[in-house]
């Protein structure tokens, strides 16, 4: 129950790592608010958890657009009170050629994968500053530190997440607020599974280069995030925690 008494807010909480954070968070004693754009998955998750006696609520919100994001956030806070711990998880992949990539694609992608983490901080920091307490985790990726060909938009955004988290940790420490990033490696989310089913050669190669010959699970990533949010990690701030089964330790 390391999050007992906390109000945990999660973006992209209906599936994948976000869903694992929500499921893990209720087990650790938090009341949870989350936003997503998939009503069906989100409502099913909320109904399941409420039936089990947990405090969970959801609002549909596009976190890449501030006013839409704020409207959903404000409704959730009005019901459960100020957010004390938060995770910026919403995002997607982007594979591109630097010449062919359109400016509109760049703007849309970065609004979701980078700017939304700033939006989350903009929304939850005022209350955290008043309480002189809070913890934020932004989800980056192994691609924020090392990458592969044709991932330049994704790698740039995830590198930005690490830098944003580091500087927020410096700026907000005086208020008793911690900010960190977590960088997953290859993780068996529904999105990755569907991709690997379409490209079995990619799956075989990914397993071949994985030092422990497997992918991580969303639950394994969520466990690190929940710990980092908690008081058990009270002196961890400004860090980027690599959760990748030692994949980053490979030279090639």
TrEMBL record:
MF terms in GO: oxidoreductase activity, acting on the CH-OH group of donors, NAD or NADP as acceptor; quinone binding
Range of residues in the leader sequence: none
GO biological process, one term: fatty acid biosynthetic process
SUPFAM superfamilies xref list: NAD(P)-binding Rossmann-fold domains
CDD domains according to UniProt: SDR_c
Keywords for this protein: Oxidoreductase
Protein name: Classical SDR family protein
Organism from which the protein derives: Candidatus Nanopelagicus limnae
Origin organism lineage: Bacteria, Bacillati, Actinomycetota, Actinomycetes, Candidatus Nanopelagicales
């Amino acid at each position: 129950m390391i999050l007992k008494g906390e109000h945990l807010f999660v973006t992209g909480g209906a599936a994948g790592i976000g869903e694992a954070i929500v499921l893990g968070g209720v087990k650790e004693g938090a009341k949870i608010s989350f936003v997503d754009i998939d009503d069906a998955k989100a409502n099913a998750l909320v109904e399941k958890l409420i039936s089990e006696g947990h405090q969970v609520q959801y609002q549909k919100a596009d976190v890449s657009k501030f006013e839409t994001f704020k409207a959903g956030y404000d409704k959730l806070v009005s019901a459960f009170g100020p957010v004390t711990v938060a995770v910026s998880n919403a995002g997607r992949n982007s594979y591109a050629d630097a010449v062919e990539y359109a400016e509109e694609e760049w703007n849309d992608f970065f609004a979701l994968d980078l700017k939304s983490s700033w939006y989350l901080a903009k929304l939850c920091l005022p209350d955290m500053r008043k309480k002189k307490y809070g913890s934020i985790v932004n989800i980056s990726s192994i691609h924020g530190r090392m990458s592969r060909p044709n991932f330049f938009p994704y790698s740039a955004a995830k590198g930005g997440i690490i830098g944003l988290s580091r500087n927020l940790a410096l700026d907000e420490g005086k208020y008793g607020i911690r900010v960190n990033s977590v960088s997953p490696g290859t993780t068996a989310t529904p999105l990755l599974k569907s991709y690997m089913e379409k490209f079995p050669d990619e799956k075989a190669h990914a397993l071949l280069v994985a030092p422990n010959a497997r992918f991580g699970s969303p639950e394994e990533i969520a466990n690190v995030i929940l710990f980092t949010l908690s008081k058990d990690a009270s002196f961890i701030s400004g860090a980027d925690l690599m959760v990748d089964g030692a994949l980053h330790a490979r030279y090639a």
